[in-house]
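Possible regression after last week's pipeline update?

I re-ran a chain I had predicted before the update to compare outputs. Posting the input and the new output here so someone can diff against the archived version. Not blocking, just want to make sure nothing changed silently.
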Amino acid sequence: ENYMSTVEGEKLPVSHCIKGSDGWKIRPRVAELIDDSLVFQKGTFPSLELANFIHEHKNEYEEIWLCGLVSDICVFSNAVMAKAAVSDTCHIKVIKSATSSFDLEMQERSFIMLKNLHIDVI
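New output (post-update):
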């Protein structure tokens, strides 16, 4: 409700992903796939809760796969946080075909940066 008064709202002044709205909901076909999976709700990007979870369980995973919107903001920042959380114990992968951005040029730049950080973009 106070999004526009947050730092993110100041920098990206477009109300989006408002809890309970269609843009906030997980698409039905995706929701079916994540029925018993952990889902982290976040107030902004990236999710410290997700990074902390990954760090606490880093020895349980060989790979972590990420996708979503927006590729050069939320997905990018969460991939970097995940990489920091596992250091060298786990491969981080971003699924290119399952993410997108309103700025496709910036998306491609972010994919290059992720690769430079040893995060696989597949």
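Follow-up from reviewer: compared with the archived run. Residues 71-86 form the longest helix (16 residues). Marking as no regression found.
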